[in-house]
Write a structure and sequence with these properties.
By secondary structure, this protein is α/β, with parallel strands linked by helices. The chain contains two helices and eight strands, in the order βαββββαβββ.
Length: 136
């Protein structure tokens, strides 16, 4: 067993196929593993961005799926968000605007360094994107 520890956000989508397309095209993720299920949905997917990863799948009424709510199921409220460190937040912002993403926080230079913005994906999950790298 590896002694490497990390955090991997996990999300559920009604249309996981469309979510994967959006996350790759707009935010810059790449498919690492995509496993279809028997109903035409996604049983499990791993998307990578640099050394980071998210896991996602289609919404289901199984033991794990019942533990999670999508933003529209809680009135659009956000319980959490993911922060993506990118080299060019302006380019990601331009792609998000071009596809009509809801920009939750305008792009700006931050007092603590870096530049960033926040947007919602098509199913309402909040993503913060910026050049501030807390590891640097």
């Amino acid at each position: 067993m590896s002694d490497k520890s990390t955090t991997i956000p996990c999300l559920r989508y009604r249309d996981a196929h469309a979510a994967i397309e959006w996350l790759c095209r707009v935010l810059g993720f790449e498919r690492h593993l995509v496993v279809p299920d028997e109903t035409g949905g996604i049983a499990h997917a791993q998307l990578v961005l640099g050394s980071g990863m998210i896991m996602l799948g289609s919404t289901r009424d199984n033991e794990y799926g019942l533990l999670m709510k999508r933003p529209d199921e809680v009135g659009g409220a956000q319980m959490q968000s993911s922060y993506l460190v990118v080299a060019d937040p302006d380019a990601v912002h331009a792609r998000a605007v071009a596809v009509g993403a809801k920009i939750a926080m305008a792009i700006k230079d931050e007092d603590y360094g870096g530049r960033g913005f926040s947007c919602c994906d098509p199913e309402g999950h909040l993503w913060s994107i910026g050049s501030y790298d807390p590891w640097a």
